[in-house]
């Protein structure tokens, strides 16, 4: 059903929302308790966004909502009605400038080049978080990048390589 | 997560009305704590009132100070130029908490109303008076190195986890509320409460009240301030102890001194007597130690957190020193100034 | 180069920094992990965990859960299907001696967080919701999880765990020599229990293929272990169950043994005759294996000049009530240094938790931490530089086995590490160095791990389009196995890396052991090289047999495989492409198998170890207790390095986890409840980005004959000794010896 301001939607009703996901407009029916992460992973088969803790404590689920990085595990999908979501699957599509020959976003290429991951499970979150962080524009030095990226845990310990990759992209952007 | 009704409110009146007509309603905005708690079955609302579309997301000049809408995200508030220029202690405190992602979602109102991070509160398998009144407090005699040393009770030793609220306490912010009985205001000091025998109540909000804004008074503490946070890793951890300190110095005399502690009590902890000790004195280590000693004079340790008393004492001294020297604790450079 | 991969001795990819071949899949989100595979009609299981640590379940009321629309079934001990009866059937390939935990076996609760029910529903959300409605009654008994209260009951494990060497017999008279020595130290050391916490929670997707056949996607460090476990427990034939695990979101040892979600998913799939996925929550990641609590005492005695007179290392490790988990904790103290009087003792004591398990460098992390702190203490007691003390007691013999060590470039590690770190500028006095408000400390330690090889096989197929596929059943947990096998295949057959595909983690591929113990590169790498060499020989025969072959009358030893061609090494103008050779031979594909196992002669003659020297700089705000590890130099001697880029990452990962051990990680037990209380990533602290400053990795040259590639393995060595180097640096900075890890603010303030 469609939602009407101020009127309760009964607990057993799916609610119609519209989301733009990786550039594609989607009309979806969601249960009110479905998180954005579960919507992506369980219902839309976009399993790139990872569930590492489901409580906002690891950052693996980080996606961009209207360009802003958030933990998708703590966002109810129904509350994001009307938003544009970018997941790791859509990053290459974001790269309208400076995309590499393989169509990857520069940050994706930099992560490969700097070996900024091992198991790869935190990587989609790290990538989305990096882009979100660059959009925010508050981090410039290595110390600032470290602090700004501390919401993304990497148990394989690739942190120094992650910072190298981000610095590389930031320098590339600055040079452009 | 349990089943619940969902209401999307368009106006404050609608939100308050929708809340009141549910049996166990909760307002939801950023969701960073509520959704977390619902997944642990700690919160089981039967109705969620989505307030994200209410017009409470701006920062405005107000009586010489600033009025920060309840739905302004923590990130927006922290990076707002006016906040940074006039209330840098608030900016620092917000940025010392959580992570970039969480601060982008979490709101001012939600930060005020976040629940404790006591292990037992989150764990259904254990007794907790805050989660289930009357079940007991397992933290007492249990794993409690992160728990309260001030103002706790035999029913609850949890701490309030916010960094932002510690700065708001020092800034003497006012919280503007709306509820079924209309609007009212609460001083930040009266907003949170000590656990006493009703630890299930974190705040003095009345049922169904919603935060409209956080109002900051027309004062300038941009020169002598700091937010110093000590924790178990260098970022993304709750405070063992934190200090928000703001000073007004006149030559070499303290005219005004306010400081609040985080991580030590069920609410941001201020001690008016200790602040008064600083008034009119020179900003020296001895004077700061005197004030710090005064704050911890009634501190009560738990089985694993006696260190927090000494840590709080030293943090106060260092925090006041930083504030007096005009060398606030930076966020990214982890050397303690 | 003594150990070349290429036929002509010139490696092009092996030994060079190459980007991870699985990189594109991982940065685009296309890499699929165990809980992400879909199946028609997939159902979802949610595990309900025990609220008590010990006792029995008196009642389970599932009525409310079953009434939730979409709930398929609630499994408990009361209605579980019959599975194998004997303990033996539940013992996986790396199980310690004992009676393995059997999920939903009966009403007994053995530990807090034990799975007591599985709720299966049409989707994840409904399974989770229904699980919250289950009402379980318990009769609780008082648990005992405090190892210090059980140590009087400690025992020498009656049955040794396969692959784990018990401590060697005493050498000389350690106690007598201790009493007689002029410099003596005896101290207790303890490292907090830790949970592995790979980023990906454990998950299994069991796909019902009809007729009792299953495809299983499991988070496991070796698919054959899951397969054989499922066969034994559920009475399946090998052909009935294929286990696949292409990517793991980290393991660190937590995925060596099949974990309970696999049992539960298969149980449900078999009963329901439909596909089932079970994914654990982060909290449930604290409900199985962990690095054990170990109480250690190290007594070292030396002559005035620092020469060791006596080493005694005693350890009591926690284990569960049902299995005797064992790891090598104390033996290292008999291996690393020259000493005639050595006594090493290792016992177990039981507590009411799940069985501890292997976690990155199991045993060595624990034991070497204690030894290397004791060595630092001895350096101060004898007034020696910590490196000088170690060099004074240097040995190239493994006295626990009475064998020479095949290669030990540890001196080079000390020298190169010290130089890179700037160790010579160190003022040996503690509390002597400052940077502003912070005390600065420089500490070092030695690391050691066994260089192992396991029996392994690999298959390779060269197809007529000139593409090579290599495969075996081992796992790449982020270690870089896909990449090094690609390099090996490319160099052996002279192909571009893009022309080589590696498949791993599938029981339909050639059999390989679990990925663990740092043995994968040596074992699977050698097997893959041999399979590719076999193909090289065959395709060379085809090429030489071609009509008017440019390679006619040329020996295999005189050709090089490069650029997709077989060339005469001395005369590259004479060549045949692999594609032409196959075409001429009329072959679409050439298949070969390769196998590898350690050479018994070599094993009998030598001991094999990797070594490292770790240097740490800490900055300590003494007043407030904050410790920062601002610099680490880790110098590694691990034989041949196949890929410096991924190799470096392995060491970085070990170092970061070592920093975690030193400063952050601690699973905190409430002994009244017998429960780990900080069971989430908010309160179980692993290092975050802000905690990690500069880490410098050095690979020193080391020639080794341990295996045909001269490779020793890198998965563990990066962590061993790191915590000791940091703790030693904290002492140097502050004058405080903190012998209980992690070094948190409270301990610095004490």
UniProtKB/TrEMBL annotation, chain A:
InterPro entries assigned to the protein according to its UniProt record, in alphabetical order: 2Fe-2S-bd, 2Fe-2S-bd_dom_sf, 2Fe-2S_ferredoxin-like_sf, 2Fe-2S_ferredoxin-type, 2Fe2S_fd_BS, Aldehyde_Oxdr_Iron-Sulfur, Beta-grasp_dom_sf
Domain 2Fe-2S ferredoxin-type: 15-91
Alphabetical list of Pfam families matching this protein: Fer2 (PF00111), Fer2_2 (PF01799)
Keywords of the record: Iron, Metal-binding, Oxidoreductase
PANTHER family xref list: OXIDOREDUCTASE WITH IRON-SULFUR SUBUNIT, OXIDOREDUCTASE, IRON-SULPHUR BINDING SUBUNIT-RELATED-RELATED
Name of the protein: Aldehyde oxidoreductase iron-sulfur-binding subunit PaoA
Organism of derivation: Methylobacterium iners
The encoding gene: paoA_1
TrEMBL record, chain B:
InterPro entries from the UniProt entry: CO_DH_flav_C, CO_DH_flav_C_dom_sf, Diverse_Substr_Oxidored, FAD-bd_PCMH, FAD-bd_PCMH-like_sf, FAD-bd_PCMH_sub1, FAD-bd_PCMH_sub2, Mopterin_DH_FAD-bd
The organism's place on the tree of life at top rank: Bacteria
Domain FAD-binding PCMH-type: 1-221
Keyword hit for Cell inner membrane: no
Keywords attached to this entry: FAD, Flavoprotein
Protein name: Aldehyde oxidoreductase FAD-binding subunit PaoB
Organism expressing this protein natively: Methylobacterium iners
Gene from which this protein is expressed: paoB_1
From TrEMBL, chain C:
SUPFAM superfamilies given in the database record: CO dehydrogenase molybdoprotein N-domain-like, Molybdenum cofactor-binding domain
Coiled coil, from the record: none
InterPro entries listed in its UniProt record: Ald_Oxase/Xan_DH_a/b, Ald_Oxase/Xan_DH_a/b_sf, Ald_Oxase/xanthine_DH-like, AldOxase/xan_DH_MoCoBD1, AldOxase/xan_DH_MoCoBD2, AldOxase/xan_DH_Mopterin-bd_sf
Domain (Aldehyde oxidase/xanthine dehydrogenase a/b hammerhead): residue spans on this chain: 28-142
PANTHER family per record: DEHYDROGENASE (PTHR11908:SF153), XANTHINE DEHYDROGENASE (PTHR11908)
Name listed for the protein in its UniProt record: Aldehyde oxidoreductase molybdenum-binding subunit PaoC
